[in-house]
Write a structure and sequence with these properties.
Layout: E1 2-6, H1 10-15, E2 21-24, E3 32-38, H2 45-51, E4 66-78, H3 79-82, E5 101-115, E6 123-124
Parallel strand pairs: 1-3
Antiparallel strand pairs: 1-6, 2-5, 3-4, 4-5
């Protein structure tokens, strides 16, 4: 299965269903199931607070270096297109500055978390490791 690594807390926010759009500086032609993984070295609390001021995070576990859930990647569009239609905390959970891309996801499916060595960009993870809950 195709996979992508996200820093914490964004990976767990996606696992919780609070985040459905991942913003990136690059686009992909890939559409389909996407395994969401947390990076081994998550963003520090200090760095996170400097990035997103006054954001209250939900009470979640924020494991690092784990595969957390599967979503369907439905579309990748310019952030300029989706920015005007996004509300609530979703705006706080991504970088919607011009020239970036919004990866639109749906169909969140929980899995039994397991360790994964992430990579930059999209990478492959053996389907046999994924246990849906």
């Amino acid at each position: 299965m195709k996979a992508i690594s996200l820093w914490q807390p964004w990976a767990s926010l996606m696992e919780a269903g609070s985040k459905t759009i991942e913003t990136r500086g690059w686009k992909t032609k890939y559409r389909g199931d996407l395994l969401i993984c947390s990076t081994k070295n998550g963003l520090s609390k200090k760095a996170f607070n400097e990035t997103i001021q006054d954001l209250e995070l939900p009470e979640l576990d924020y494991p690092e270096g784990q595969a957390l859930c599967v979503v369907s990647l439905n579309d990748v569009v310019s952030t300029d297109i989706v920015y005007q239609f996004i509300f609530d905390n979703e705006l706080n959970y991504g970088d919607y500055s011009p020239g970036r891309f919004a990866w639109i996801t749906t169909n969140l499916r929980p899995i039994k978390p397991f360790p994964v060595v992430g990579q930059q960009g999209l990478f492959n993870v053996n389907d046999e490791l994924i246990e849906f809950l």
